[in-house]
Amino acid sequence: MTRSLEPMIDFFLREKGELVHINGVRQLALIRDATDTIQMTDEKIIRAATPLHTGDSVDYRYEQYLITSQVDRNEKSCRGRMRKCNQRLALNWNGQVKWFDAVVEARTFSTETGKVISMPEGNILVTVQDNADTRNIALNQRFYMTHQPFKVTGIDRTMNGIIQLSCTLDSINTAYDDVEHNIADRWKYEITHTYALQINQGTIAHVLLNETLSLNLTATDNGNEMVNPVITFITSDPNVVSVDQHGQVIGIALGQASITAKLTYHLTVLSTIELRVVETGTHIYSIAITGNPMLKTGQSASYVSHIYDHGTEVFDQSVEWSLRNQDDSTPIMGSIIATTGNSVTVKAGSSSGAINKVLVLTATLVSDPSITVEKNISLKNLF
């Protein structure tokens, strides 16, 4: 890509551009490999009609990149070099854990073309975006990478947009470090968490061809709803259904594909929904149940069914409720004690046999009993 593209940049973006997210904003960009030879690092050239800056985060083909070069600004476009982030690092500030996409390397290139400088064994160079969070990184702060502990020994903030950290191997603290999940000092501050994530449109939903559908999710921590949880969305077939990082689904072609949502910092906590892309036609209903996924023995809670037609909530339909044990055993370790409209109140059993059981609450559409949705409710000890 040369400056000769400049007069026709809009045309090339329309014809050859790819959708990316730059700092979370969706837009078109021209992407090409930075070199013609295979290298250890994945570097690409990005060109866009909107402003680019050193340190910008680019989501390209479900991979995170960081613009690490200075940006060449022309009359109608900007161009820069971006590198694939090969690690996600967790930094812990007195119990507040934040994750960062980073470029990690054990060797660097000098200003002398082609010369590689190997860093001392056990030392790495970490490049991260310069933002309000990374500016709080301090000397001797510890983090894990591939189950090995490192600490920050040097901080270089001389290049606008990025921060480079010189780091060296450190010792494992078996009492406090969560080595399995690569979080330093986790158990020094954190209590045990039980996370849950649910897509509220149920297990199957429909989206019209060339239309959009916003996924509605509930994430909880120890039964309490999380505020602004960070979620990663993945589509099983981007040629049928695409999804962005905000859970906005687009029907690309007739057919079906699954969308999986994961808590970004706890990737084993996930929920999956099947999306069917259809043409405009008859009603296509789906149901979602909202309410606490955890109940203490002997206590009760209310749950509400939300009914959607083509992903839009409607209020002229009703459901019937039922309750069972997840393992289909008897007696049922709970009961439905009240129903009002499309809401229901469930009471957990009080016997010791109810502890750690899971109830399954089912809502069935009255006008079409083939449409159902289930919600799992975990029963915990009152004390």
From TrEMBL:
InterPro entries: Invasin/intimin_cell_adhesion. SUPFAM superfamilies: Invasin/intimin cell-adhesion fragments. This is BIG2 domain-containing protein. It comes from the Bacteria.
